Automatic annotation (TrEMBL):
Its main location: membrane. This is sphingosine kinase. It is found in: Endomembrane system. SMART domains: DAGKc (SM00046). One of its GO terms (biological process) is regulation of apoptotic process. Residues 136-281 form the DAGKc domain. The gene is SPHK1-L. The keyword Zinc-finger does not apply. Keywords: ATP-binding, Kinase, Membrane, Nucleotide-binding, Transferase. It comes from Homarus americanus (American lobster). Its EC number is 2.7.1.91. One of its GO terms (cellular component) is membrane. Residues 406-422 have a biased composition (Basic and acidic residues). The keyword Transport does not apply.
Amino acid sequence: MAGGTEKPEWPLQGQFRRYKVKGNPCDIRIDETGFTVSSKGDGASGVVKQEVLKASDLVGCMCMKAGPAEARTHLAFFTIFAYPLNDKGKKRRRVTFSFEVDKEDTFEKNLEIAETWRSGVYRAIRIFGTANPQTDKSKKLLMLINPNSGPGKAQQIYKKQVASVFGEAETDHEVIITERANHAREIVQSLNLAKYSGIVILSGDGLLFEVYNGLFERPDWEQAIQYPIGMIPGGSGNGLARSLGQWLNEPYLANPVLVSTLNVVYGHLSPLDLAIVQTAEGKRLLSFLSIGFGLISDIDIESERLRSIGEARFVAWSFIRVANLRKYPAKISFKRAQRKTSNQIPKVRPPLMHSQTFEEEPEVASEALPDHLPRSQSVVQEVETLYTEDGSGQECGDGGQQNHKRGVESENESNRDNHALTDDCLIPDLNEPVPEDWETIEDNFIMVHATYQSHIATDAFIAPEATPNDGIMWIMMIRGSTPKSSIAKLLLGLDGTHVNVPGIEMIPVVALRIVPASSNGYLNVDGEVIPWGPVQAHILPRRGNIMTR
Ligand SMILES: Nc1ncnc2c1ncn2[C@@H]1O[C@H](COP(=O)(O)OP(=O)(O)OP(=O)(O)O)[C@@H](O)[C@H]1O
């Protein structure tokens, strides 16, 4: 066994003293289920306290040497990092365990033992994850940060929250701060995808829309859109990150950034539904969130002027818009999905399993930790300096001077129609009549919004039954005849209960055509405006790959 006892391999068991914690040495063990530490109290009764961290809550392990204050220079140390749920399952918290390795006379030999434990921790993490494909850990991630997203805090979020978890998890990555609208799109259009294990967005949904459309515009788009994507919320519209939290039954709201960062460091890939949108000009766009017009779209677009207040902008603008309801004459056609019925209360998911910890871990403050050893691979990023793609350093804060630009009308002149799709066989061209098995509703509408994710924003739980990969677009439809009281109820709580409010129709579909009959309005795809006019979308079930736990 590691730690001075014989058998090296698996599971690892040993006895070590905890760094800077008084008391007897602890028995520790790492196996497929995770990490267990048993500590015996003083005295004859010697109550044994056991704590268990599930493998799925472990993120990494670091080996260290003694700091300058430590006289026993032959010691080595290892620290295990984990993010278990708290006892009520309402939040994830950081837990560290640091151990001294004092089995041998020399630092080098003790370090070897510490390294065995480090490998054991990563083995436990990997074994837990074998059921799902994972991102290729031998390559680095490309992280794109929009310094102007939402209230402009994305770089701060990276420095203060994301970089430390990436360091603990040895998640090698390269950061690019986007310099202007469409920068991310241009980067991914010509990116050597083989160089990276995936792309992580630290921003709002708008930057992911750019990335997906950059991938969609590549000649190899059919493979490119399957590229692993990670999403860490940093904008004012974070619908996908919130939807993933909902699906995974994570306590997302307690710490959205941590929960989403953990999705990235685990790097399991889950299939993600995407949709192809065809506009009247013959353009095709790739969408991962929603398409619609009317009330919610208007609120999303018009509240843009309040973006400095972050996600609260949607609520604030709702009050203004509901007082001045607009109605839009239009023809809505759709192919109904076979598998779901509409307007149901969502099923409650089983609670997550907890790691078994008896008390809040007395966290070892990072300054109290021994010195980190330089690692063989360059895996811990310097937090102060972010790296551009060519490797030249770029100080945080450089990239925020560009104006935030909305809309995709003019941005992609070169959007050539190279998407001769097998999937297009499903649906006719936009200027052809819809097939006979489609349904059509012609009316005045307060809104029509089709979403493939449960949330289109943190507070907008539009489609309670939607999961990221069920192959369904949920149309939420409100007709002009719906009483204002129903609309008010809806906007007071887009919390999933709205599906039972009279006048709110939820229709599961796989394809949708919108033909507006009014001269103007906002057509919204993933929070971006596209030109007002006929448009249709169809689902590409499970075509994307999103990083999840
Ligand atoms: N450096 C930059 N300066 C200005 N705009 C940028 C920059 N980088 C990216 N953008 C643009 O900002 C848009 C919105 O970004 P994002 O979605 O990340 O933030 P958001 O606050 O959530 O925005 P939204 O208003 O779309 O919800 C992106 O579509 C992108 O085109």
